[in-house]
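Illustration: Spermidine/putrescine import ATP-binding protein PotA.
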Amino acid sequence: FAPWENPDAKPFIEFRNVTKRFGDFTAVDNLSLKIYEREFFALLGGSGCGKTTMMRMLAGFEEPNEGEIFLDGQNLRGVPPYRRPANMMFQSYALFPHMTVEGNVAFGLKQDRLPKGEIEARVQEMLKLVKLEAFAKRKPHQLSGGQRQRVALARSLAKKPKVLLLDEPLGALDRKLREETQFELTDLQAELGMTFLIVTHDQEEAMTVADRIAVMDKGRIIQVATPAEIYEVPNSRFVADFIGSINMIEAKVATRNGEATHLRASGFDREIVVDQQTEASVGDTVWFAIRPEKVRLSFDAPADGCNAVQGEIWDIGYLGDVSIFHAKATEDVVLKSTVANVTRTVERPISWDDRVWLSWDRDAGVILTR
Ligand code: ATP
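Result:
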């Protein structure tokens, strides 16, 4: 089973109560985190949340004010960047424009004064890895954005670091190329059996590449979990809202019996029943969060046993693969429902102003208390 589920597993990278301040601004706030060997780990958060600072501290470009960082059992305090077994690939790629692809990839190896034959062999190996053998003699300006990105990747991997740090590595690529490259990155990581740490503000990217994600806000980690857990069982409104699209209904706990919790939401005729226990007490205000694809739409009343509310179609968005329906359920609540377009229909069967039922299963959403 996964190393993070094993309490005895030794972390490969560990941040222990790390704080980083710039003047009187706290960029990273008493943060602890364990990352395991061969993990593809993502730091995800909005601009300014401290994710790049985390990575720069690991690489040695910043020192923490408080706390310790360990890599493969070594305390990194005072270890200069070039002595750390971590290599960082920058967003700008920082390729040398006057050097060929080969020259760029060989640069770090030459600095380390490796024997010539070994450098040549390593460069060939790296170019093969990123499928750029045919471009060895070109200069960066003769390459596409995606190819430049792969040169930067080859250069970062050439010294065979124990950890590769990727700072928004795909930010400069267009959407299609970015999606392809995401899968190439995960293949590459699996092939090399290395630990990858990526910093991104793009939740889809984090979900696609990472084994686990840390969602950050204001210098703190809000949740660390697998992509599926982050999406299905967010631990807070912040995470629920940051990842994907979600419906959020404010409600009060009405009853709690064994496995299920009953919620009462203003304007709803029926209680919302959720197959989930909560630490909240009867009468407490909580939020019921449910993904739009888990909300069904129908003209007929749904079967007993599931949650349901009536609503009026307010807005429809056609996105090709799915359509998004917005339905006004109460004075304050507009629920989103996404419906997969599995057959070829130009006309939506449900249209503006239709009165519909919105329904969902008892195990389809989560109760959030913060
Ligand atoms: P982005 O995605 O925009 O790069 P980020 O989450 O990576 O955001 P960081 O670069 O880690 O954010 O920065 C966190 C905060 O610390 C920001 O508010 C930033 O302005 C501040 N900061 C970072 N480096 C410095 C510095 N050298 N001096 C002063 N403030 C800094």
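Reading the tokens back as a structure: The longest strand covers residues 307-318.
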